[in-house]
Amino acid sequence: MNDQTPNIEEMNERSREVFRRVVEGYLESGAPVGSRTLTRSFSEQVSAATIRNVMQDLEFLGLLDSPHVSAGRIPTQLGLRMFVDGLLEVGDLDNKDRETIDRTLGGHDQDVGTVLDQVGQALSGVTHGASLVLTPKHEAPIKHIEFVSLARDRALVVLVFADGHVENRIFTPPAGQTPSSMREAANFINAIAEGRTLSELGSVISREIAARRQEIDSLAADLVENGLALWENEGEATERLIVRGRGNLLSDSEDEVDLERIRSLFDDLERKRDIAQFLDLTEDGDGVRIFIGSENKLFSLSGSSLVVSPYMNADRKIIGAVGVIGPTRLNYGRIVPIVNYTAQLVGKMIADRS
């Protein structure tokens, strides 16, 4: 491969056309595209040998690859990136897709979490991929917190918000916790929690622990600090990630290695290891962003592509994201307007409700 990164503008017209047709053919069929196929589709008379030479040049540049000795070419990750950045034609949103997404936001009596779950299902259905929806944190003031021991290594925290919203979260408590130390920790937190959001509570508790550490035993302090890690995104993220359509990816892949990679991806997602990073991916600017293969840590193992867009609240602050994940041969021109429209619709719904 050439050391210099190729530029689409530096290609001559024939090279650009061959490259575009190879990528579009691959995205449509998932199969390598051969020179004879391209020869039949060219409007001008071009020999298969001429097209083969052009494809070899594109392969030398690192834009195409030959999966087998006598087969056609497929785009590399670099080639897909160049195509998406320079040649992708984004279509209009299909009316049927628009109606499907619109229907998920029709019920004003449903809570935001339920609506976003339905949005995820709709996205998965219309794209035939897996959908990702990162829901916003609940930022109403806290009314009450309670810890419940479930097992030696599992506990439940019950969060009651001033607006009536209740959340139950499972977490792993520090070793040595007892029911009495959990009650003591809950009492300590509740004494300072009321009227504050979770974000505000984190910084307040840090100061209180420093000032009053002697007033609670070391185990209770340990539990509070463990909880803070949850609330401040220093470990498990407080945002909720909704994953829908996992079966669409698993059924599309016949290769056992690919299946293992995809399972590994979803295991990571469902353990919520990198959810905070999922939102970080979108914060470099408004609009839809496309990540191909190893371009981001979150999906590098799966060999998949992510099309993602943030959504904002009434203050134009990014509070969540929606996206679609699928094979690198996604129909990007169709998926981009679907994700963009869904993100705008979700943002408007949340802004209207607030």
Sum up the structure in keywords:
single chain; 354 residues; alpha+beta; Arc Repressor Mutant, subunit A; Beta-Lactamase; Enolase-like, domain 1; 3 domains; three-stranded antiparallel beta sheet; 47% helix; 18% strand
Count of discrete structural domains:
3
CATH class term of the largest domain? Alpha Beta
Low-confidence stretches: 227-238
Average of per-residue pLDDT values: 76
Euclidean distance between termini CA atoms: 53 Å
Q: Portion of residues in helices?
A: 40-55%
Rg over C-alpha atoms, rounded to the nearest angstrom: 25 Å
Count of separate DSSP helical elements: 13
Please give the number of β-strands.
10
The biggest sheet, with number of strands, parallel, antiparallel or mixed sense and barrel status, is:
5 strands, antiparallel
CATH architectural category of the largest domain: 2-Layer Sandwich
Biggest sheet: strand arrangement: 7-3-10-9-8
Question: In sequence order, what are the helices and strands, one letter per element?
Answer: HHHEEHHHEEEEHHHEHHHEEEH
Shape: elongated
Strand content is 15-25%
CATH topology of the largest domain: Beta-Lactamase
The helix-and-strand class reads alpha+beta
The CATH homologous superfamily name of the largest domain equals GAF domain
Notes on the structure:
Strands 7-3-10-9-8 form a 5-stranded antiparallel sheet, with helices on both faces. A 3-stranded antiparallel sheet has the order 4-5-6. The longest helix is centred in the last third of the chain and has 22 residues, at 332-353. The protein has helices at 13-29, 35-41, 48-60, 77-86, 95-104, 112-127, 179-193, 198-212, 218-231, 246-252, 256-270, 275-280, 332-353; strands at residues 64-65, 74-75, 130-135, 142-151, 154-161, 166-171, 240-244, 289-292, 304-312, 318-327. The model is unreliable at 227-238 (pLDDT under 50). It folds into 3 domains: 8-86, Orthogonal Bundle (Arc Repressor Mutant, subunit A); 95-136 and 239-353, GAF domain (Beta-Lactamase); 142-231, Heat-inducible transcription repressor hrca homolog, domain 3 (Enolase-like, domain 1, 2-Layer Sandwich), CATH 3.30.390. Helix 2 packs across helix 3 (48-60) and helix 5 (95-104) packs parallel to helix 13. It is elongated, with a radius of gyration of 25 Å. Helix content is 47%, strand content 18%. By secondary structure, the chain is an alpha+beta fold. Strand 1 and strand 2 form a beta hairpin.
